């Protein structure tokens, strides 16, 4: 008898450097799209969770990656569900207009990784995955849509490679360091 691998979900972080403060009139079209896009995400097939600030409808006031950088951290049942929401919904309008509101990134600004079903990643964990992708390129630990890995590949990688010890900056950014060990 074989045991099946625990169910996994796909976590994603993307960061965007603001061209202007969110209260600047030039950012008004983006701010106006936040609520409908977040509502669409919340009801999208395969959506599990998204980071929001306590008492707020979104996470735009959270700035764990820098004062002018906003973060989007979500969890999805599958990579296909995230892809469909990102590229086959009203979210695509935001992507098409992103240069109006955000600086062009010269390094990776999106990272994907597998987490055990039920695990909610911390911003510290997410930023560590982004740093891993930037430093080492795509791997089962931190990857992109263009260079994907399956949950099984991530689990196999985790068994074969001992977890890296996060550096001081990553440890300080984590609100619950023990949670990082739960991620695949």
Write the layout of secondary structure elements.
Layout: E1 8-17, H1 28-43, E2 47-50, E3 69-76, H2 79-87, H3 91-101, E4 110-116, H4 123-136, H5 151-160, H6 168-173, H7 177-180
Antiparallel strand pairs: 1-3, 1-4, 2-3
What fraction of the residues are assigned to beta strands by DSSP?
15-25%
Main β sheet profile: 4 strands, antiparallel
The CATH class turns out to be: Alpha Beta
Lateral arrangement of strands in the main beta sheet? 2-3-1-4
Helix content: 25-40%
Query: How large is the count of helical segments?
Result: 7
What do you see in this structure?
- By secondary structure, the chain is α+β, with helices and mostly antiparallel strands.
- The chain has one domain (8-180): Alpha-Beta Plaits (2-Layer Sandwich).
- It is built from seven helices and four strands; from the N terminus they run βαββααβαααα.
- It has a four-stranded antiparallel beta sheet, with helices on both faces.
- The protein is globular, with a radius of gyration of 16 Å.
- Mean pLDDT is 88; it is low at 167-182.
Keyword list:
184 residues, alpha+beta, Alpha-Beta Plaits, four-stranded antiparallel beta sheet, 7 helices, 38% helix, globular, disordered C terminus
Put the structure in a nutshell:
By secondary structure, the protein is α+β, with helices and mostly antiparallel strands. Helix content is 38%, strand content 16%. It has a single domain, classed as Alpha-Beta Plaits (2-Layer Sandwich), CATH 3.30.70.100.
């Amino acid at each position: 008898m074989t045991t099946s691998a625990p169910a996994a979900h796909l976590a994603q972080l993307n960061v965007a450097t603001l061209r202007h403060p969110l209260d600047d009139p030039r950012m008004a079209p983006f701010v106006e799209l936040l609520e409908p896009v977040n509502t669409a995400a919340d009801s999208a097939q395969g959506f599990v969770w998204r980071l929001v600030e306590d008492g707020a409808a979104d996470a735009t006031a959270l700035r764990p990656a820098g004062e002018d950088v906003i973060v989007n951290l979500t969890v999805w049942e599958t990579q296909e569900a995230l892809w469909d929401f990102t590229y086959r919904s009203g979210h695509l309008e935001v992507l098409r207009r992103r240069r109006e509101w955000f600086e062009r990134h010269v390094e990776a600004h999106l990272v994907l990784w597998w987490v055990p079903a039920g695990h909610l990643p911390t911003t510290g964990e997410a930023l560590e995955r982004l740093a891993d992708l930037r430093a080492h390129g795509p791997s089962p630990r931190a990857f992109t849509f263009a260079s994907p890995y399956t949950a099984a590949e991530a689990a196999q990688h985790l068994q074969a490679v001992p977890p890296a010890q996060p550096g001081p900056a990553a440890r300080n950014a984590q609100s619950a360091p023990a949670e990082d060990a739960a991620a695949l």
